[in-house]
Specification:
229 residues; alpha/beta; TIM Barrel; 8-stranded parallel barrel; 9 strands; 20% strand
Length: 229
């Protein structure tokens, strides 16, 4: 089972920062997960929430106007070069203040990876809770791996089949809702199961035992130790 640093090694370093990604590299993680949002000047900023603690809406500011330390996707990809996998989560949910039905961020992420010749290298995986977003990525770059992020899994067969029918390669359920049946159903459909966000060593070992393909965790070092790596 792969160990993916959630927003980098985010227990040891500020999340979604270059330091957190370098920390994941140093801890021996197989990959990292990071969050991408758009800014007013079209930059791809790495930040989870659509609004800063002071009420500033991210999409209403340029990258230069945002607090120091907020990185751009391109710089993070440079730091993550030693890793086997970079899971780029595009933040684009209808209730977000920066929601964009035209899927501008999806197109920008694909364009950036194309410019870096990293669309078909097998290292990048694009995920989103909003299914039309990863559908757009798949339409633009069929060779780029895409995954559907899931919260509560109420109908495993329906959701798995929907992801597979649309050409996606993985589902990303929260680990609370993962069981052996979900993993078996996904694998039968040809999909990987990469689960989030688990930091408990016993739970991580159990997820590996039932066949999860990756665990996304705030503590890559703890997860690796739990798995005997």
């Amino acid at each position: 089972m792969l160990v993916i640093g959630h927003r980098g090694a985010s227990q040891a370093f500020p999340e979604n920062t270059l330091a957190a990604f370098q920390g994941a590299v140093d801890q021996g993680a197989d990959g990292v997960e990071l969050d991408v949002r758009r800014t007013a000047d079209g930059s791809l900023a790495l930040i989870h929430d659509d609004t800063l603690p002071d009420g500033t809406v991210v999409v209403e500011r340029t990258l230069a106007e945002l607090p120091a330390g907020i990185a751009e996707l391109a710089h993070a990809l440079d730091v993550c070069r030693p890793l086997a996998l970079v899971n780029i989560e595009i933040k684009n949910w209808p209730e977000d203040k920066d929601f964009d039905a035209t899927e501008q961020v999806a197109a920008q992420v694909v364009a950036l990876l194309e410019a870096r010749a990293e669309v078909a290298d097998g290292r990048n995986l694009i995920s989103c809770f909003h299914l039309p977003t990863i559908d757009r990525v798949h339409d633009l770059a069929p060779g780029l791996a895409t995954a559907w992020l899931l919260g509560m899994v109420d109908d495993v067969a329906r959701l798995v089949d929907r992801a597979a029918d649309r050409g996606h390669v993985a589902v990303h359920p929260h680990h609370f809702f993962v069981n052996a049946g979900l993993v078996e159903r996904a694998h039968a459909a040809g999909l990987a199961v990469n689960t989030w966000t688990c930091d408990d060593p016993d739970r991580i070992r159990w997820l590996a035992e039932i066949g999860c393909d990756a665990v996304i965790t705030n503590v890559p070092d703890v997860a690796l130790q739990a798995l005997g790596r």
